[in-house]
Design goal:
Layout: H1 5-19, H2 34-40, H3 43-54, E1 64-68, E2 78-83, E3 86-92, E4 101-108, E5 112-117, H4 122-139, E6 142-147, H5 155-178, E7 182-186, H6 187-196, E8 201-205, H7 207-218, H8 229-236, H9 246-258, H10 264-279, H11 285-292, H12 304-319
Parallel strand pairs: 1-8, 6-7, 6-8
Antiparallel strand pairs: 2-5, 3-4
Length: about 325
């Protein structure tokens, strides 16, 4: 399945120089580039979906709607670097009252460390519960909430408790009448379930969990490199780019490795060719920058096509 921009450029080079010369493979090709999609309207994506089903490739058959609680937690946290020994405390001073709550978090005895304090509010959690429950009810699908309440008994436990209280009071009878349900799961269990499920539910996540898991969900249709737009704009102007294509090469090797009817030595050999090319000092600009820092010069790296050509030469040498 072909995409857009810079990924499309070196995807073709990888196929033409590293895959097709060595494998006699009946490949099914779909051009999902924006230009071709516009020209064919909806027909091409539907054809691609039908093909996935025809060839029994694993995929979700129903939508997964991830709700991210976009307030608080790490995103409004206060963090600091601790210098030297001392006690770290958390202090709450209630408005209009004299009594304070003071918690000792850690007694630093060495050179110091790091600390973070984060928060959330009942009002924000309640609003998130209402949005999550209502979305699932409108879609007539199950609703799940995930936390790590076994570790953060009070913090994540507060999320779990409010979800359950609001569900029992306002939504349980509606859900039962609609034939749907609400459940709380540990984040570990929910991630594992998402991998093997067919989809078809609303997943209400805490702020950071939703940030991570929405990317996990999007990866089904997202290029491994992203669009690399900045490099593509340079390419359009006939400028030189040095885009790292190793991840895309490994997409091919891991897919081929999964197909048992193919020679399992080829995938390992191609990966070795990539790794040994870099280890020999031939690499793209991003890797050369790590090695050379501010002293980076043009002779330290290869451009996009040069790198793939060197890997192809290394692969040919290994297979000959």
């Amino acid at each position: 399945m072909d995409g857009d921009e810079m990924t499309r450029i070196f995807w073709k080079s990888i196929k033409d120089k590293l895959i097709f010369p060595f494998l006699d493979w009946d490949i099914k090709y779909f051009d999902l580039g924006l230009t071709h999609r516009d020209a064919t309207m909806i027909k091409l994506p539907l054809k691609r979906t039908d093909s996935l089903q025809e060839h029994s490739l694993p995929h979700w058959t129903k939508p997964i709607c991830i709700g991210k609680h976009a307030f608080g937690d790490q995103y409004r946290a206060t963090d600091t670097v601790i210098k030297g020994p001392g006690k770290l405390k958390l202090l709450f001073v209630p408005e209009g009252k004299d009594e304070m709550t003071e918690l000792e978090l850690h007694n630093f005895t060495g050179e110091g460390g790091v600390a973070i304090a984060m928060h959330n509010t009942d009002e924000s959690i309640c609003a998130f519960v209402e949005a999550s429950m209502n979305t699932a009810y409108e879609k007539k699908v199950a609703s799940y909430n995930s936390t790590k309440n076994t570790l953060l008994n009070k913090y994540d436990g507060r999320f779990k408790d409010i979800f359950q209280e609001v569900y029992d009071a306002l939504w349980k009878s509606k859900y039962e009448a609609a034939g749907i349900w609400y459940e709380h799961h540990l984040i570990d269990d929910m991630v594992a379930y998402a991998f093997k499920s067919e989809g078809g539910y609303v997943w209400a996540s805490k702020n950071y969990d939703g940030d991570v898991q929405s990317d996990f969900l999007a990866q089904e249709a997202e290029p491994v490199h992203g669009a690399v737009t900045r490099h593509y704009r340079v390419h359009q102007k006939s400028g030189e780019t040095s885009t790292n294509s190793i991840a895309s090469i490994f997409v091919w090797t891991r897919e081929l490795e999964h197909k048992a009817k193919l020679d399992d030595n080829f995938t390992q050999t191609l990966e070795e060719a990539c790794i040994e090319t870099v280890e020999s000092g031939k690499m793209t600009k991003d890797l050369a920058l790590v090695l050379n820092g501010p002293n980076l010069a043009r002779n330290h790296y290869l451009n996009t096509e040069e790198f793939i050509d060197v890997v192809a030469a290394e692969l040919n040498a290994k297979l000959s």
